[in-house]
């Protein structure tokens, strides 16, 4: 992970006014060094000679006599990183604006003392082995804009205080072991990115729990339940939404398809009802598979490049607009298998472009000869009549 742009600007401004490092910061760096070590193959600490000016150390950036940015570990991709624990002395670096720890083998708890860094704007400690709970004191970092603690072993709940940080723009906690409910982020009115993917979060989302400022939201791979229509209705700035692999129920609002989304992933939930956009859908990828959606397939979805509607309860014929766009190679993936569809009008001599995939397996119809289905679609071509009779 690279140091933030804000810190680089500060470094350029203050580099000509550097003074002798503040003794408190000097001692804090010594404690941090004693608790961390290079993994074999890493040479990060080779420049950390305390007989020299610490502001010349790798990863240490100063303004006058204070450390304003600390980047622990090599920033290059694939570097072996550091091991050990983050010392509580980190909280003594009172002017720290940017704290970054590169991927490595750092373990132990996140020090409570980080909450003392009142000027901190960027906190990035991802892809290590940090365990324990997220300190509730992080909610005191009133200036922090980004918190990235992803790909660690953090457990416990997400402190509600984090959801009230006024300047927070990015919260990335994916791939941990966090449990409990999603706290309210209604007060975090600058929040653009919320990534809680791949934890064990439970409970439902209150209608006003997420701010309308969100542009990127992923809650996938959790155990969340309840309806989402009233939550999603307000998030009209979203350009990425992934709620897949949860247990969400109820319908989805038609307005959702008019948001400036590039990806809409709602697969593997228990969502139901019709799917009825207001206008032609310009989202590149829409995945509604493995739910309980029903009714006819809207022709307004024919403008989607990658469309997954498989494993639902859709009925009726496939609209002709899908056939036209498929044959023109405007649709790359059209998965409609495992529904209750009754027909598709396509010329038997028409050739589906090699760049396109159509699957209509296991519906209430004889599928076209030309199909490219995933192996998980099974080998049974047509749904048994007794199952089709339930919907027709």
From TrEMBL:
Keyword set includes 4Fe-4S:
no
Keyword annotations for this protein, in alphabetical order, are: Cell wall, Disulfide bond, Kinase, Leucine-rich repeat, Membrane, Plant defense, Receptor, Repeat, Secreted, Serine/threonine-protein kinase, Signal, Transferase
Coiled coil regions, renumbered to chain: none
Every Leucine-rich repeat-containing N-terminal plant-type domain range: 25-62
Q: How is this protein annotated for GO cellular component?
A: membrane
Gene Ontology molecular-function annotations:
protein serine/threonine kinase activity
Similarity remark: Belongs to the polygalacturonase-inhibiting protein family.
Q: What is this protein called?
A: LRR receptor-like kinase
Q: Which organism is it from?
A: Medicago truncatula (Barrel medic)
């Amino acid at each position: 992970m690279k140091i933030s742009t804000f810190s680089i600007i500060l470094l350029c401004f203050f580099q000509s006014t550097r003074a002798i490092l503040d003794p408190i910061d000097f001692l804090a760096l010594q404690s941090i060094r004693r608790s961390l070590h290079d993994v074999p193959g890493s040479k990060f600490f080779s420049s950390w000679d305390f007989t020299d000016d610490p502001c010349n150390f790798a990863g240490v950036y100063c303004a006058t006599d204070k450390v304003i940015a600390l980047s622990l570990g090599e920033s290059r991709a694939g570097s072996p990183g550091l091991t050990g624990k983050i010392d509580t002395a980190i909280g003594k670096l009172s002017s720290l604006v940017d704290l970054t720890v590169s991927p490595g083998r750092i373990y132990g708890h996140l020090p409570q003392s980080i909450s003392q860094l009142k000027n901190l704007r960027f906190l990035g400690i991802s892809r290590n082995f940090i365990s324990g709970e997220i300190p509730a004191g992080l909610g005191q970092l009133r200036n922090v804009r980004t918190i990235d603690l992803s790909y660690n072993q953090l457990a416990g709940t997400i402190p509600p205080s984090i959801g009230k940080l006024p300047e927070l723009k990015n919260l990335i906690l994916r791939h941990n072991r966090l449990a409990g409910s999603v706290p309210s982020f209604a007060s975090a009115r600058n929040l653009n990115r919320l990534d809680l993917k791949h934890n064990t979060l439970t409970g439902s989302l209150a209608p006003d729990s997420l701010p309308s400022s969100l542009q990127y939201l992923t809650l996938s791979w959790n155990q969340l339940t309840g309806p989402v229509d009233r939550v999603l209705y307000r998030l009209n700035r979203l350009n990425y939404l992934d709620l897949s692999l949860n247990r969400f129920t109820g319908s989805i609002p038609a307005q959702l398809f008019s948001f400036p989304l590039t990806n809409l992933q709602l697969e593997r939930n228990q969502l139901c009802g019709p799917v009825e956009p207001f206008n032609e859908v310009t989202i590149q990828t829409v995945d509604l598979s493995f739910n309980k959606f029903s009714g006819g397939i809207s022709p307004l979805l024919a403008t989607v490049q990658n469309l997954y509607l498989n494993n639902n309860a859709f009925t009726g014929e496939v609209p002709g607009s899908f056939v036209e766009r498929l044959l023109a190679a405007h649709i790359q993936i059209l998965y409609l298998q495992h529904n209750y569809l009754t027909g598709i009008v396509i010329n038997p001599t028409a050739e589906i472009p090699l760049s396109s995939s159509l699957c209509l397996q296991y519906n209430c119809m004889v599928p076209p000869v030309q199909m490219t289905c995933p192996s998980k679609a099974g080998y049974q071509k047509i749904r048994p009549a007794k199952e089709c009779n339930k919907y027709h």
